[in-house]
Amino acid sequence: MRTSTPARVGQYTALLAYLVFLAFPFLWLVSTAFKPPRELGSLHPTWIPENPTLANFRQAFDEQPLLHAALNSLLAALAAAAVAVLIATPMAYVVARRRTRLAKAVTGWVVVSQAFPFVLLIIPLFLVLKNLRMINSVPGLVLVYVVWALPFALWMLAGYVRSVPPELEEAAAVDGAGRVRTLVSVTAPLLAPGIVATALFAFITAWNEFFFALVLLKTPEKQTLPVVLTHFIGAEGVADLGPLAAAAFLATLPSLVVFAIIQRRITGGMLTGAVKS
């Protein structure tokens, strides 16, 4: 069925309005990051700074250890992404290839687990980490990130596994390859784009995470970048807008770059898992 011209105009108008709605916070953040204090306190704010300055960036680095916090976030995000993918890959293979009740139960667990809010999870996770003596440690935070990223990583990778023709694995079995050998030598190379996309998604999730890091990390030198950003807000709730916007802009850039790279692969993995062969 062909879509009429008025309907198309309405669709594109709605899409444009949605894009503007999504882009507004980031554009305003960038504008604020380059504004001098006089323009930040103006009663008539403008989109484009009249006298752009880098003073907010210099002040942000002078007031808070942004580089050290970014390094903590980087280490936690990289470790969480690597461990999550390492665990999720064989699990996704079993879920996608074996149509058993256990596989269906795992799929149901993946869907249900995404509905749990952070508040319900933090107490049991805190108690587990306390017993393991991993409170206020980056490895403990990595463990939490792995638990949180694993369900979605499993869901994504299962979709990629289903896109691999089973005939290739059957041919490998005829040649005498076992399950592990087939997974490592045949399936895994074909899953490389999906594994990379899943790892990068887990990285973004861990890089931007705030709540778990705020609760589990108490020592300033171990805090991640999202937690350090809150230090630009005073005890009375008054924010130092210029440095805060500059630091937030720098913290957002890695996520935007990574997401721009993997957004097509993420969408492809979701759609592939929804199509039956």
Characteristic terms for this protein:
mainly alpha; disordered C terminus; 277 residues
Describe it.
- It is a single chain.
- It is built from 13 helices and no strands.
- By secondary structure, it is mainly α.
- The longest helix is centred in the C-terminal third of the chain and has 34 residues, at 241-274.
- The chain starts with a helix and ends with a helix.
Question: What's this, in brief?
Answer:
The chain is mainly alpha-helical and 277 residues long. The protein is built from 13 helices and no strands.
Distance between the termini: 26 Å
Helix content: over 70%
The helix/strand class is mainly alpha
Low-pLDDT ranges: 269-277
Shape assignment: globular
For the biggest sheet, the summary is: none
What's the count of strands?
0
Distinct helical segment count = 13
Topology of helices and strands:
Layout: H1 5-33, H2 37-40, H3 55-63, H4 66-97, H5 101-113, H6 118-131, H7 138-163, H8 166-174, H9 179-190, H10 192-208, H11 211-216, H12 225-229, H13 241-274
